[in-house]
Amino acid sequence: MFDIVIKDGILIDPEALTRRTGSVGIQAGKIAAVTQSEICGKQEINAAGRIVAPGFIDIHGHVDLDAYCGELSLRQGITTTIGGNCGFSPLDVEAFFSAHEKNGFIINQAEMIGHSISLRETVGAVDPLKPATPQQLSRMEAMVEKAFEAGACGLSLGLAYAPGSSNEEVYHLSRLAARYGRIVAVDTRMRTGIDMYSLVEAVDIARQTGARIQISHLVYQYGTGVVDEALAVINRARADGLDIRFDSGMYTQWATHIGAVLFDEDSMAVNGWRLEDILVITGKYNGRRLTMDIYRELRTTAPHTAVVVFTGVEEEIYLALSHPYGMPSTDTGPYAPGEGHPQIAGSFPRYFRQMVGERYELTIMEAVRKATLLPAETLGFPAKGRLRAGMDADLVVFDMKTIMDKAEFGLPNAKPEGIDYVLVNGRLALDKGRLVESTAGQAVRCHKPVYDYQI
Ligand SMILES: [Zn+2]
User: Fold this and answer.
1) How far, in Å, CA of 439 to CA of 424, rounded?
2) SS3 breakdown of the chain: % helix, strand, coil, rounded to 5?
3) CA 279 to CA 76: how far, in whole Å?
4) Taking CA 153 as the corner, what is the angle to CA 180 and CA 14, rounded to the nearest 5 degrees?
5) What is the 87 CA–ligand 1 centroid distance (Å)?
6) What's the whole-number mean pLDDT along residues 92-97?
7) Residues 235-287: tens digit of each pLDDT
8) What DSSP state is assigned to residue 332?
9) Residue 313 in 3-state DSSP?
10) Pairing mode, if any, of strands 18-27 and 427-431?
11) How is residue 393 annotated by DSSP?
């Protein structure tokens, strides 16, 4: 008798890329059986006609212990989120994991250490246009090493937020990531919407340091008519033996804070962004487009206000996510209810609806692989993203016929439909769309061996 049995579902195995009807038995937080035989559990979930897959792994998020953001992620079928992206993270990763372990959390969290905002500001490299001094760099190196010792799964660079970062800074820290076997997630230094050099530069980090590179939200960076070229750069680098992968959301419009250096007047002009193309999504002007008065006021008095830039070519999302090394991600972050970008509640259901259900860009097996096994392999999670005995019982049950994102601008936290059950470490957290458990998530510490790496 198992603790829980998910019965008669359409089981998707992302390793074997198979689909077959069967049942999953769960015992003590692990998948204990995947079988076509009749099995019984203390609790049974009828999954007839529904997809049963490993829980989704969101490789690019900013949940960072925010309970509401975590709930919106769970409702999308996400069971593990990767925080600390875009160069912005908790500084003390050990304290972050300890807080998670002490109080529990709604989903599993892995965490990166963020260079361009968090570490730089802490060591006094506060001017985003200037490189860090050698003393500041050596302090940052010590902090990155401490974060990796605590189990951070990667280093995140937000070069768009600190375009003055020197190669020395980037290479020294990335070499540490290579030595620890952790990834480097790069929000590229893009100067304009067609700046391919910024991607070549990110690829070059791999060449110079041996680090594995995850390009962050590729479509937010290059989905402006140049995704083809971006994919060509990535393919060429991969053919050269460099490990370059990427993620992308399901939207072309991207969000960040108005105080970022990329909203300086000369950067706005060089990109051709007009004020009316930028929507405020938090604070007192929530829902309003920018005017010169609002722009000036927010930049000086409320620089953390989030805005969305309406840019990009929708078709490029589908192109990017059809690439075998492209993974879906949310770029979610903490917002008050009613504020924010629809990516916080709609990304993964939108991915399955559009990529599989409507456009036939991916088979269901391939779509599940890219949302589960591929990020698990990229990050080095040996027991996640897989549907077989012995693996962590992070599971999602959804209906491919009805899965639907409901979130949109103005209604960013609308709950998706068609995702019926989500289990986190063998505990039922979402039951027929109802949140029933909010402490089943575990801190996911990476402890791969340190490589004696020299380049
Ligand atoms: Zn981000």
Assistant:
1) 9
2) 35, 25, 40
3) 25
4) 110
5) 8
6) 98
7) 999 999 999 999 999 999 999 999 999 899 999 998 889 999 999 999 999 99
8) B
9) coil
10) unpaired
11) -
pLDDT at 201 over 60: yes
Residue 414 tokens read as 């609308």
Tokens 């980037």 found at: 170
The rounded Å distance from CA 400 to ligand 1 centre is 28
Residues with CB under 5 A from ligand 1 (ion): 85-86, 331
Length of the chain: 455
Tens of pLDDT, residues 311-337: 889 999 999 999 999 999 999 999 999
Q: What's the token pair of residue 316?
A: 């490029």
- Structure tokens belonging to residue 422: 């989500």
55-256+315-378 shares the fold of 2-53+389-435: no
How far does residue 347's CA lie from ligand 1's centre (Å)? 14
Q: Are strands 183-187 and 154-158 parallel, antiparallel or unpaired?
A: parallel
Beta strands in 2-125 (DSSP E): 2-13, 18-27, 30-35, 41-46, 51-54, 56-58, 78-83, 108-114
Distances in whole angstroms, Cα of residue 300 to Cα of each of 127, 184, 295? 16, 32, 9
The answer to whether domain 2-53+389-435 has CATH 2.30.40.10 is yes
> Residue 20 C-alpha to ligand 1 middle, in angstroms?
36
The candidate with the shortest Cα–Cα distance to 62, out of 54, 70, 71, 74, is 70
The three-state secondary structure class of 321 is helix
Q: Domain ranges in the chain?
A: 2-53+389-435, 55-256+315-378, 257-311
Task: Check residue 31 and give left, alpha or beta (phi > 0: left; psi -120 to 50: alpha).
Answer: beta
Distance in Å, CA 91 to ligand 1 centroid: 16
Q: Residue 125, class by beta-carbon neighbours within 10 Å (0-12 exposed, 13-18 middle, 19+ buried)?
A: buried
CA-CA distance, 99 to 96, in Å (whole number)? 5
DSSP, residue by residue, 228-249:
HHHHHHHHHHHHTT--EEEEE-
Q: Under CATH, what is the fold of the domain 55-256+315-378? A: TIM Barrel (3.20.20)
d(CA 123, CA 37): 59
Report which of 353, 333, 352, 349 is spatially closest to residue 341, judged by C-alpha positions: 333
Neighbour-count burial for 44-66, b at 16+ CB within 10 Å, e otherwise: ebebeebbbbbbbbbbbbbbbbb
- Amino acid letter for position 114: G
In this prediction, residue 193 carries a pLDDT of 76
Q: Where are the alpha helices (DSSP H) in 181-275?
A: 197-209, 218-222, 227-239, 265-271
Cα(54)–Cα(31) distance, rounded to whole angstroms? 10
Distance, CA 27 to ligand 1 centroid (Å)? 35
Which pair of tokens denotes residue 296? Answer: 């000036």
